[in-house]
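Please fill in the sequence for the structure shown.

STRUCTURE ENCODING:
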């Protein structure tokens, strides 16, 4: 009997399941809180818990471990990650402004060098390594990794490779080269993808190390696989180098898990986690792949992933009280630790602060907010104001936000510490509302009740209390989560619907006629609208909220028994699929260049160039699959020929090849 262990690490929970490979049956499942900054504790607790639910089972019998995670997705949605530097080679000013590079850098260093290649792979300008050396010497402390992107590096990677070698020699830091993440053109977007990859390296490395260390303690020697954003499995070693491929890993695993658990062939899957809601269309039992690359946190990357709409809306989303006469709400996109959970971990601190605030009228606006430092020593490379705040937190430990911020001018510094993943904020979330309403249990109900009471006492634009009591305030928050989820599902449905709508999905979803239709308006004009596919609700809190969502949309709701661990289920039912891709171009009559992994090679005939490229990609894809644990990979080729008609005759422009080696990872059977 082959047993496979699946682990999913999310922003709030870490889940684990055991799958009997032969019987295709989940034999045990468990949850534990995700622990930051030491992920090992949460991973270990989830694994230990699931093993205790399989009495008499020897952990050494586990034949494979598969890991999925939402950490990379959450980090990009929340603007977190390590400080990095980006090296751009041969880009002009206009190119630097594209793809959101400035926003993605967020003030981190940019190094610009002369160099780069032409479309044909010829050196356009000599690489300036002396300028690189000077820039490396001037880097500020605290840089954790570097990204390198050169003009037309997919045609000739020589300059990226040379810069990577020099950076490693001078700094020893991890380096991401853009040509290794995508073979497509579009230098600015390749640079963006490389930058985000570099920002995630430390986080994903810590995750994998945490998982490996606990497996070693249990004497589990099975190979560790990780779910990629397209749902395929890859080796942990490869993910350490290319963590960007794990964006949408958790959602991709949830799609696989939803299909396996429900047997539904067509549905909208909505997976609510602590930080995000991820929505994907399941058609003919399979998710679509986004042809333009994964879009997460406002950035369009070149990472191949499921066509997923990710929104910063989850059970732990920050509750914003909006100005105005009625006192409306908005949720997200930032995740907070729920007050009920903070009180479970720091009961004396949280209850003392809440009790003090309840005794005042009016209470301070940030009375139910807390600052939780995630560092034990002062982080290096902090600007003066952030360093001063960090020193204060190092001395005080977890504290009410009002005690930490001594002036409004310090608020931006606190937000920067949060963005760097050094500090966690706690405050009111939908999870607290669910505890007040009795829809969730397990954390500190009394703390949630106090925090929601304080929020209910806040005044709207009319000077009235926002709610008569904690329960009414909690219902407002739950209603807002339902409303925002309905909007997300409608936007996804309009985006996937084949009808040629004349307006954008978000416009259509919010249109007054659409809202009247959902409300089943029955006046002189009768309007009715409903979703044309069932909704599969996934996530630990799906049962708390999605009944009202499906009712509003007039559709059937499916919440499988294992909805709370669907990501971990999806992690163990996937296959390995390794890709290698390249192109052949014709920059001049009679000249055909095969852009091989090791660099460009010239040929006089197109089929000779294509044959050489095919052979190189075949070796590369099969080698990657075997390194990932596939015994006998199955090879599939896709080819795209681009031609133009000149004087009635077809002319060769470019051929693109993609070789995919796939198969189930090799696992022990005894």
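FILLED IN BY: designer on duty
SEQUENCE:
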């Amino acid at each position: 009997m082959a047993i496979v262990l699946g682990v999913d690490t999310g922003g709030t929970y870490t889940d684990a399941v055991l799958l009997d490979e032969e019987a295709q049956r989940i034999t045990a499942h468990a949850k534990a809180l995700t622990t930051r900054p030491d992920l090992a504790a949460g991973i270990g607790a989830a694994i230990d818990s699931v093993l205790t639910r399989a009495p008499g089972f020897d952990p050494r019998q586990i034949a494979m471990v598969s890991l999925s995670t939402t950490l990379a997705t959450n980090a990009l949605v929340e603007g977190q990650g390590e400080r990095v530097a980006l090296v751009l080679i041969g880009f002009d000013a206009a190119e630097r402004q594209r793809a959101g590079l400035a926003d993605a850098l967020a003030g981190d260093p940019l190094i610009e060098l002369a160099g780069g290649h032409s479309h044909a792979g010829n050196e356009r300008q000599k690489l300036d390594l002396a300028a690189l050396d000077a820039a490396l010497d001037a880097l500020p402390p605290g840089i954790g990794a570097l990204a390198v992107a050169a003009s037309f590096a997919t045609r000739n990677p020589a300059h990226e490779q040379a810069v990577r070698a020099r950076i490693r020699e001078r700094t020893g830091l991890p380096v991401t080269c853009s040509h290794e993440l995508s073979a497509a053109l579009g230098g600015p977007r390749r640079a963006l993808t490389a930058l985000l990859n570099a920002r995630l390296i430390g986080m994903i490395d810590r995750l994998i190390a945490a998982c490996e260390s606990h497996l070693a303690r249990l004497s589990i020697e099975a190979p560790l696989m990780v779910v990629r954003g397209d749902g395929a499995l890859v080796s942990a070693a490869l993910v350490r180098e290319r963590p960007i491929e794990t964006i949408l890993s958790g959602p991709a695993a949830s799609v696989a898990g939803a299909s396996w658990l429900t047997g539904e062939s067509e549905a909208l899957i909505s997976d609510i986690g602590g930080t995000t809601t991820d929505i994907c269309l399941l058609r003919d039992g399979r998710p679509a792949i986004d042809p333009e690359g994964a879009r997460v946190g406002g950035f369009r990357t070149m990472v191949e992933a499921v066509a997923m709409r990710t929104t910063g809306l989850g059970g732990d989303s920050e509750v914003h009280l909006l100005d105005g006469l009625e006192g409306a709400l908005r949720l997200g996109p930032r995740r907070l630790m729920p007050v009920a959970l903070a009180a479970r971990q720091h009961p004396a601190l949280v209850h003392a602060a809440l009790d003090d605030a309840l005794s005042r009228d009016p209470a301070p606006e940030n009375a139910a907010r807390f600052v939780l430092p995630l560092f034990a020593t002062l982080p290096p490379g902090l600007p003066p104001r952030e360093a001063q705040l960090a020193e204060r937190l190092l001395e005080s430990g977890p504290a009410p936000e009002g005690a930490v911020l001594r002036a409004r001018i310090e608020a931006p510094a606190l937000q920067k510490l949060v963005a760097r993943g050094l500090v966690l904020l706690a405050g009111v979330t939908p999870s607290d509302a669910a505890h007040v309403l009795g829809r969730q249990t397990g954390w500190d109900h009394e703390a949630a009740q106090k925090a929601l009471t304080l929020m209910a006492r806040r005044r709207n634009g009319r000077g009235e209390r926002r709610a008569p009591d904690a329960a009414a305030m909690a219902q407002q928050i739950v209603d807002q989560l339902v409303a925002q989820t309905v909007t997300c599902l409608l936007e996804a449905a309009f985006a996937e619907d084949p009808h040629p709508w004349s307006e954008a999905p978000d416009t259509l979803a919010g249109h007054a006629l659409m809202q009247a239709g959902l409300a089943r308006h029955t006046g002189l004009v009768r309007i009715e609208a409903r979703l044309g596919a069932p909704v599969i609700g996934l996530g630990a809190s799906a049962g708390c909220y999605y009944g009202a969502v499906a009712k509003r949309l007039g559709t059937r709701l499916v919440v499988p028994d294992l909805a709370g661990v669907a990501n971990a289920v999806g992690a163990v039912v996937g296959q390995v699929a390794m890709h290698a891709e390249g192109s052949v171009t014709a920059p001049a009559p009679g000249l055909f260049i095969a852009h091989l992994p090791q660099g460009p090679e010239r040929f006089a005939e197109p089929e000779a160039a294509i044959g050489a490229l095919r052979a190189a990609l075949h070796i590369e894809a099969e080698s990657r699959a075997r390194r990932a644990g596939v015994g006998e990979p199955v090879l599939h080729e896709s080819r795209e020929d681009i031609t133009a008609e000149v004087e009635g005759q077809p002319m060769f422009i470019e051929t693109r090849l993609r070789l995919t080696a796939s198969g189930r990872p090799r696992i022990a059977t005894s």
